[in-house]
Protein backbone atom coordinates (compact mmCIF):
# COMPACT_ATOMS: atom_id res chain seq x y z
CA UNK A 1 0.00 0.00 0.00
CA UNK A 2 1.52 3.36 -1.00
CA UNK A 3 2.34 5.85 1.70
CA UNK A 4 0.09 8.92 1.94
CA UNK A 5 2.74 10.93 3.76
CA UNK A 6 4.47 13.42 1.46
CA UNK A 7 8.17 13.97 1.87
CA UNK A 8 9.68 17.43 2.04
CA UNK A 9 12.64 16.16 -0.01
CA UNK A 10 10.46 15.99 -3.12
CA UNK A 11 11.13 19.20 -5.10
CA UNK A 12 7.58 19.05 -6.46
CA UNK A 13 6.25 19.32 -2.90
CA UNK A 14 7.69 22.75 -2.18
CA UNK A 15 5.50 24.76 0.18
CA UNK A 16 3.25 27.43 -1.34
CA UNK A 17 4.04 31.09 -0.89
CA UNK A 18 2.11 32.72 1.91
CA UNK A 19 -0.14 35.49 0.60
CA UNK A 20 1.41 35.74 -2.90
CA UNK A 21 -1.14 38.30 -4.07
CA UNK A 22 0.36 40.83 -1.65
CA UNK A 23 2.99 41.36 -4.36
CA UNK A 24 0.36 43.05 -6.51
CA UNK A 25 1.35 46.30 -4.79
CA UNK A 26 4.19 46.35 -7.36
CA UNK A 27 1.64 46.31 -10.19
CA UNK A 28 -0.20 49.20 -8.56
CA UNK A 29 3.08 51.11 -8.16
CA UNK A 30 3.94 50.61 -11.86
CA UNK A 31 0.45 51.74 -12.92
CA UNK A 32 0.51 54.87 -10.74
CA UNK A 33 4.05 55.86 -11.79
CA UNK A 34 3.26 55.12 -15.43
CA UNK A 35 0.04 57.14 -15.53
CA UNK A 36 1.61 60.01 -13.58
CA UNK A 37 4.61 60.26 -15.91
CA UNK A 38 2.42 59.97 -19.02
CA UNK A 39 0.18 62.72 -17.69
CA UNK A 40 3.18 64.95 -17.07
CA UNK A 41 4.67 64.19 -20.49
CA UNK A 42 1.36 64.92 -22.21
CA UNK A 43 0.95 68.24 -20.42
CA UNK A 44 4.51 69.57 -20.44
CA UNK A 45 5.90 68.31 -23.75
CA UNK A 46 4.95 69.31 -27.27
CA UNK A 47 4.17 66.40 -29.54
CA UNK A 48 7.22 65.05 -31.42
CA UNK A 49 9.50 67.88 -30.23
CA UNK A 50 12.47 66.41 -28.37
CA UNK A 51 13.70 67.96 -25.15
CA UNK A 52 17.34 67.01 -24.62
CA UNK A 53 18.07 65.78 -21.10
CA UNK A 54 21.44 64.15 -21.81
CA UNK A 55 23.44 63.85 -25.05
CA UNK A 56 21.94 60.36 -25.55
CA UNK A 57 18.51 60.83 -23.95
CA UNK A 58 15.51 63.00 -24.86
CA UNK A 59 12.00 63.40 -23.58
CA UNK A 60 9.84 63.20 -26.71
CA UNK A 61 6.06 62.90 -26.57
CA UNK A 62 4.82 60.34 -29.09
CA UNK A 63 1.57 58.40 -29.55
CA UNK A 64 1.80 54.73 -30.49
CA UNK A 65 -1.40 53.03 -31.69
CA UNK A 66 0.49 49.76 -32.15
CA UNK A 67 2.55 47.56 -29.87
CA UNK A 68 6.27 47.51 -29.11
CA UNK A 69 8.36 49.15 -31.83
CA UNK A 70 5.07 50.46 -33.33
CA UNK A 71 4.16 46.94 -34.46
CA UNK A 72 0.80 47.10 -36.31
CA UNK A 73 0.61 50.88 -35.77
CA UNK A 74 -0.39 51.58 -39.38
CA UNK A 75 -3.51 49.39 -39.27
CA UNK A 76 -7.00 50.96 -39.18
CA UNK A 77 -7.77 50.46 -35.47
CA UNK A 78 -8.59 46.81 -34.82
CA UNK A 79 -5.21 46.40 -33.12
CA UNK A 80 -6.39 48.67 -30.27
CA UNK A 81 -8.97 46.07 -29.22
CA UNK A 82 -6.68 43.15 -29.97
CA UNK A 83 -3.92 44.51 -27.70
CA UNK A 84 -6.50 45.45 -25.05
CA UNK A 85 -7.78 41.86 -25.05
CA UNK A 86 -4.23 40.51 -24.85
CA UNK A 87 -3.46 42.83 -21.90
CA UNK A 88 -6.58 41.74 -19.99
CA UNK A 89 -5.98 38.06 -20.71
CA UNK A 90 -2.30 38.25 -19.80
CA UNK A 91 -3.06 40.13 -16.58
CA UNK A 92 -5.63 37.54 -15.51
CA UNK A 93 -3.32 34.64 -16.40
CA UNK A 94 -0.32 36.17 -14.65
CA UNK A 95 -2.40 36.92 -11.54
CA UNK A 96 -3.51 33.29 -11.40
CA UNK A 97 0.12 32.21 -11.80
CA UNK A 98 1.14 34.63 -9.04
CA UNK A 99 -1.49 33.16 -6.71
CA UNK A 100 0.05 29.68 -7.15
CA UNK A 101 3.70 30.52 -6.52
CA UNK A 102 5.85 28.45 -4.22
CA UNK A 103 7.61 29.97 -1.21
CA UNK A 104 11.02 29.98 -2.92
CA UNK A 105 9.83 31.81 -6.07
CA UNK A 106 10.51 35.37 -4.92
CA UNK A 107 11.84 36.56 -8.26
CA UNK A 108 8.63 35.45 -9.96
CA UNK A 109 6.67 37.24 -7.22
CA UNK A 110 8.37 40.46 -8.38
CA UNK A 111 8.46 39.77 -12.14
CA UNK A 112 4.79 38.89 -12.61
CA UNK A 113 3.36 42.06 -11.00
CA UNK A 114 5.80 44.21 -12.98
CA UNK A 115 4.39 42.75 -16.20
CA UNK A 116 0.80 43.06 -14.94
CA UNK A 117 1.32 46.71 -13.99
CA UNK A 118 2.90 47.51 -17.33
CA UNK A 119 0.16 45.75 -19.27
CA UNK A 120 -2.58 47.56 -17.33
CA UNK A 121 -0.82 50.94 -17.61
CA UNK A 122 -0.70 50.64 -21.38
CA UNK A 123 -4.23 49.18 -21.42
CA UNK A 124 -5.53 52.39 -19.82
CA UNK A 125 -3.97 54.42 -22.63
CA UNK A 126 -5.38 52.17 -25.33
CA UNK A 127 -8.90 52.32 -23.94
CA UNK A 128 -8.94 56.03 -23.07
CA UNK A 129 -6.83 57.53 -25.86
CA UNK A 130 -6.70 54.85 -28.57
CA UNK A 131 -2.90 54.92 -28.42
CA UNK A 132 -0.09 54.49 -25.89
CA UNK A 133 1.76 57.59 -24.71
CA UNK A 134 5.53 57.16 -25.10
CA UNK A 135 8.10 59.78 -24.11
CA UNK A 136 11.47 58.23 -23.16
CA UNK A 137 13.81 58.38 -26.13
CA UNK A 138 17.39 57.10 -26.18
CA UNK A 139 19.71 57.66 -29.13
CA UNK A 140 23.34 57.39 -30.19
CA UNK A 141 25.23 58.31 -33.35
CA UNK A 142 22.03 59.22 -35.19
CA UNK A 143 20.27 55.95 -34.29
CA UNK A 144 17.13 56.28 -32.17
CA UNK A 145 15.75 53.46 -30.05
CA UNK A 146 11.92 53.46 -30.23
CA UNK A 147 10.39 55.70 -27.57
CA UNK A 148 8.86 53.95 -24.57
CA UNK A 149 7.29 54.61 -21.16
CA UNK A 150 7.30 53.41 -17.54
CA UNK A 151 4.80 50.61 -18.33
CA UNK A 152 7.22 49.29 -20.95
CA UNK A 153 10.03 49.36 -18.38
CA UNK A 154 7.87 47.28 -16.01
CA UNK A 155 7.08 44.76 -18.75
CA UNK A 156 10.73 44.53 -19.79
CA UNK A 157 12.08 44.11 -16.25
CA UNK A 158 9.39 41.53 -15.54
CA UNK A 159 10.24 39.60 -18.71
CA UNK A 160 13.94 39.65 -17.79
CA UNK A 161 12.98 38.30 -14.35
CA UNK A 162 10.95 35.50 -15.95
CA UNK A 163 13.82 34.55 -18.25
CA UNK A 164 16.32 34.70 -15.39
CA UNK A 165 14.11 32.55 -13.18
CA UNK A 166 13.51 30.02 -15.95
CA UNK A 167 17.28 29.59 -16.39
CA UNK A 168 18.77 30.12 -12.94
CA UNK A 169 15.77 29.09 -10.82
CA UNK A 170 15.39 25.73 -12.54
CA UNK A 171 19.10 25.02 -12.14
CA UNK A 172 18.95 26.01 -8.47
CA UNK A 173 15.95 23.76 -7.80
CA UNK A 174 17.52 20.82 -9.63
CA UNK A 175 20.76 21.26 -7.72
CA UNK A 176 18.86 21.43 -4.39
CA UNK A 177 16.90 18.29 -5.31
CA UNK A 178 20.12 16.42 -6.12
CA UNK A 179 21.71 17.52 -2.84
CA UNK A 180 18.66 16.33 -0.89
CA UNK A 181 18.89 12.89 -2.52
CA UNK A 182 22.51 12.44 -1.46
UniProtKB/TrEMBL annotation:
Q: What is the lineage of its organism?
A: Bacteria, Pseudomonadati, Pseudomonadota, Gammaproteobacteria, Oceanospirillales
Q: Which PANTHER family match?
A: LIPOPROTEIN SIGNAL PEPTIDASE
Q: Which organism is it from?
A: Vreelandella alkaliphila
Q: Could you list the residue ranges that cross the membrane?
A: 23-41, 78-98, 107-124, 144-164
Q: Which named protein is this?
A: Lipoprotein signal peptidase
Q: Where is the active site?
A: 134, 152
Identify the EC number(s): 3.4.23.36
Protein location: Cell membrane
**According to its UniProt record, which protein family does this protein belong to?**
Belongs to the peptidase A8 family.
Question: Broadest EC class?
Answer: hydrolase
Keywords assigned by UniProt? Aspartyl protease, Cell membrane, Hydrolase, Lipoprotein, Membrane, Protease, Transmembrane, Transmembrane helix
A GO CC annotation recorded here is: plasma membrane
Give membrane topology per the record: Multi-pass membrane protein
Biological process per Gene Ontology, one example term: proteolysis
Role according to the record: This protein specifically catalyzes the removal of signal peptides from prolipoproteins.
The answer on whether this UniProt entry bears the keyword Transcription reads: no
Q: Which GO terms describe its molecular function?
A: aspartic-type endopeptidase activity
Grouped into one coarse class, the protein's main location is membrane
The pathway is:
Protein modification; lipoprotein biosynthesis (signal peptide cleavage)
Catalytic activity line of the entry: Release of signal peptides from bacterial membrane prolipoproteins. Hydrolyzes -Xaa-Yaa-Zaa-|-(S,diacylglyceryl)Cys-, in which Xaa is hydrophobic (preferably Leu), and Yaa (Ala or Ser) and Zaa (Gly or Ala) have small, neutral side chains
The cross-references to PROSITE patterns, in alphabetical order and at most eight, read: SPASE_II (PS00855)
Amino acid sequence: MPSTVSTTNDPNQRPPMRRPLRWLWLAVAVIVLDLLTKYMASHFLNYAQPVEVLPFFNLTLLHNPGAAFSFLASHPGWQRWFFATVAVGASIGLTIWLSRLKADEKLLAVALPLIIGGALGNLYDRLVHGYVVDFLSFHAAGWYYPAFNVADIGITLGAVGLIWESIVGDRRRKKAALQQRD
